[in-house]
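Notes from hallway chat w/ T.B., transcribed later so I don't forget. T.B. wanted the structure written out for a chain they're using in a teaching module, and asked if we could keep both sequence and structure tokens in one place. Agreed to drop them here.
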Amino acid sequence: MTTRARTIPAGFERATPYLCCKGAARAIEFYTTAFGAKETMRLAEKDGRIGHAELRIGEAAIMLSDEYPDMGVLSPATLGGSPVSIHLYVDDVDALFQRAVAAGARASKPPSDQFYGDRSASLEDPFGHKWMFATHIEEVTPDEMQRRYDAMTAK
């Protein structure tokens, strides 16, 4: 029996990053340890290669797979890096940052308070993906944000 499908699946109402990882099973282990991700599904081939997996980091959905060069699906490791960063809000950016570095992430920018009202940090995971995590700490109006930005860039 089938039911009528929602045109947008529940939990996927926002943009969903789809990561290609050289070693997707290891990537899932890393994201679980470092970012507290929860694996919600995995389609694996007999040889262990992951054709598709889905994770949740908080409410954010992340999809990923292994490389499939014949289909043009290549990882940052093969491409020599990635120009894209994934940004997620978390309850405690300092704790996540420490846990991720301990799990093998490379610290790009340690947690610090930002003029726009976030405490944020940047990391690169062992698979070449760039992550920005933030905890919102202050409500800042657009006018105040512009004033602070102007003061910061005037230096």
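Follow-up for T.B.: Residues 18-153 form a domain with the 2,3-Dihydroxybiphenyl 1,2-Dioxygenase; domain 1 fold (CATH 3.10.180.10). Might be a good example for the class.
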